[in-house]
Amino acid sequence: MKKIAKKFLDKLDLIYTKEELEIVKSGFNTEKRPTVFRINTTKSNFEEIEKNLAENKLEIKKIPYLTNAYTLLN
């Protein structure tokens, strides 16, 4: 397990149940987390971003439960 400051864990312990705290702590040990981003539609649009990513050989997938949110597949 990665080292997590005791003071930080003590604060988390006040917020979460023991079971929830174990889930939170396990998140700190994840080696590779997905890259997730949202498109600011006041500055750009999906088509423009998708084109730019495709030009750079990057694929994305829509996150269905978030507005304008995508995850990077590669």
Describe this structure in words.
The protein is α+β, with helices and mostly antiparallel strands and 74 residues long. Helix content is 41%, strand content 14%. It is built from three helices and three strands, in the order ααβαββ. The protein has helices at residues 6-15, 18-27, 46-55; strands spanning 36-38, 60-62, 69-72. The two termini are 26 Å apart.
* Low-confidence spans: none
Element-level helix/strand string: HHEHEE
What is the overall shape?
A: elongated
Major β-sheet strand ordering: 1-3-2
What is the number of beta strands? 3
Tell me what portion of residues adopts beta-strand conformation.
Answer: 5-15%
Distance between the termini: 26 Å
Biggest β-sheet description: 3 strands, antiparallel
Helix/strand/pairing category: alpha+beta
Give the helix level as a range of percent: 40-55%
Mean pLDDT across residues: 88
Number of helices: 3
**Integer-rounded radius of gyration:** 18 Å
